[in-house]
Write a structure and sequence with these properties.
With 127 residues, the chain is α/β, with parallel strands linked by helices. It has a single domain, classed as Response regulator (Rossmann fold). The protein has helices at 11-23, 34-44, 60-69, 87-95, 108-119; strands spanning 3-7, 27-31, 48-51, 77-82, 100-103. The protein has a 5-stranded parallel β-sheet, with helices on both faces. The radius of gyration is 13 Å and the shape is globular. The protein starts with a strand and ends in an 8-residue tail after the last helix.
């Protein structure tokens, strides 16, 4: 089963994403801050990481740096999910190695399409 790690400090957003991804047929792993997110990435080796940008312990940029710097996790697809819609922040995230950048609030259809693209799934395929 395809595994997705959600790194998000806001409980409600994390819970909503977990429900959505579970209904889509994905196995979901969760972390509520950047430090535990990096640890979860290393221990669970997900297929995709969906990561908030502004979090305690480590921010999303630091999480991305840790993930991309570790040979065991560097190939994991990485998507920022953040309230920061500033173009410079988006460019920085993508330049540092993120595969995608989605701003909050987001549409579930957009999230579904991004996940399927990052995982190399067809639009009609399940998780």
């Amino acid at each position: 089963m395809t595994r997705i790690l959600i790194i998000e400090d806001e409980d409600a957003i994390r819970a909503n994403l977990r429900r959505f991804l579970s209904m889509e047929g994905y196995e979901v792993v969760e972390a509520d801050n950047g430090r535990t997110g990096v640890e979860a990435a290393r221990s669970h080796l997900p297929d995709l990481i969906i990561c908030d940008l502004m979090m305690p312990e480590l921010d999303g940029f630091a999480v991305l740096k840790e993930v991309r710097g570790d040979p065991a996790t560097r190939g994991i697809a990485f998507c920022f999910l953040t309230a920061s819609a500033e173009k410079d922040t988006r460019r920085t995230g993508l330049a540092q190695g993120a595969d995608e950048y989605i701003t909050k609030p987001f549409e579930l259809a957009e999230m579904r399409a991004v996940i399927k693209r990052l995982l190399g799934e067809s639009a009609s395929a399940g998780g």
